[in-house]
Amino acid sequence: MLNTIKKDGVSRFNISPFFFPAIVVGRASRVHKEVKLAEALSDRIPIFRRKGGGCSVFLDPGSLIVSAVFPAEGYSQIQAIFNTSNLWLINGLRKSGITSICHDGISDITINNKKVGGSCFYRAKGFAYFSASIIVSTDLHMMEKYLYHPPREPDYRNGRNHLEFVATLDSYFKALNIQDLSHELKMNLEPITL
Q: Which domain holds residue 114?
C-alpha cells in the first residue's frame, strides 16, 4: 500500500488475518527489553520490525490486521490524525456489531478496561499509514510466553500482566470468527479522508 499511494495518492485500506505466529516490534523498540528472545528463538517465532511506533506485539492467525494509507500534507497534528484513524476503525467495529468498544491510552481499543486491539501510526512526506491488530482469537498464553511486560504502559493497565490486561473479542462475542469480522469490516469501512 505504501508504494501505491506514492504513485497515485489514493486512500485505501486492507483487512487480513495474520497468517502465522510472529512478534512485531515497534520502530524504536529495544528488542531484548520487550521480547523473551530465548523462548522466541527456541520456538522459531519470527521477529519483524514495523515502521510505526509502540511496543512489541504477538500476532497469530487469530489476529486481524486492519491497515489504511491516505494523503496527509505536512507533519503537523500527528496525534490528531492518529486519533481520527483509531476512531475510524472503532466506528467500523461498532457498525460490525462489536459493541461497548472504546479508545483508551494512546492507541488502544478496549472493552471493559481490557485491551482487544492496538494500533500504530507512521507519517511520511505526503501520506500517513495507520495499522491496527484486532485480537479476535489470538493465543494470549503465547503472548505472555514471548513478551516481557512492556517498558511503558498506559495508566489504565495498572501493572497488569498480558493475561490480565488483554482479552480476545471472541470471549465477549461467542459467535464471532475472524472471517466474518473481516467481511463485516470490509462492508462497513470506507477509505480514510482528512
A: 2-188
